Amino acid sequence: MDRKTLVLMLTEALLIVVLVVVIALDFNKAPAEKHVAASHDAVHEEAAQDAAVEEKTEVAEAPAAKEVAKAEIKEEAPEAEEVAEKEEVKKEVAEKAEKAAPAAAGKTEVADVIAMDNPTYAKHKKTIVQFTHKKHIEEYKLSCGECHHDEKAEPLKDLKMGDAVQGCIACHDKPGKAPKEVKDKAEKLTYHTNALHKNCIDCHKAHNKKNNTKAAPASCGQCHVKKK
């Protein structure tokens, strides 16, 4: 065999080997690509499932959120109504107090006997007290400041008969008597009835004790005289 023939045979053998290697590589590459594609498909499918679950969860939670919102609205509504009602009452009391209070300046005509019939009360449970204003000043020698005081409960010492003063309801602006659950003394005096009773009854009791008498009325029936 000459050299030329040998080279030709070796070349053919080499080509065959290369061809076999290429075929083998292609054969191995195809399953790998299929595996990668399958992996991608699996990932996409899992993501789609997660999205579907999340969407279902949101849909399921939506009615619950609506119910919570409705409940909150229901809870807030009575509170708003209560606040509005209180504001309306305050406004009404203020308007009535303004009408009841005398002028802020100038002289005021003072009746000898004053009917304690305050317009802020829708209805009186007892008879109206007839306060003998003139008798308290002239006969009992009380000064104006013993009943009329400032916001700190200090007597208005310079007040004279006929001077303009505010009615009690201007400061003690809650009509009626304080509820039983109100224990604070200062808060009780914001109620008109409590303020009047304390002002009058405390003074009457002190007078009776000092003079060893029972002349000054200190019980309900003595002031709120029943009609005959």
From TrEMBL:
Transmembrane segments: 6-25
Keyword annotations from UniProtKB, A to Z: Electron transport, Heme, Iron, Membrane, Metal-binding, Transmembrane, Transmembrane helix, Transport
Cofactor binding notes: Binds 4 heme c groups covalently per monomer.
SUPFAM superfamilies: Multiheme cytochromes
UniProt keyword Heme present: yes
Binding site for heme c 1: C144, C147, H148, H149, C171, H172, C200, C203, H204, C220, C223, H224
Cofactor: heme c
Residues covered by the Class III cytochrome C domain: 115-224
Entries under Gene3D superfamilies matching the protein: Cytochrome C3
Binding site for heme c 4: H133, H136
Gene Ontology MF: a single term: metal ion binding
Protein name: Cytochrome c, class III family protein
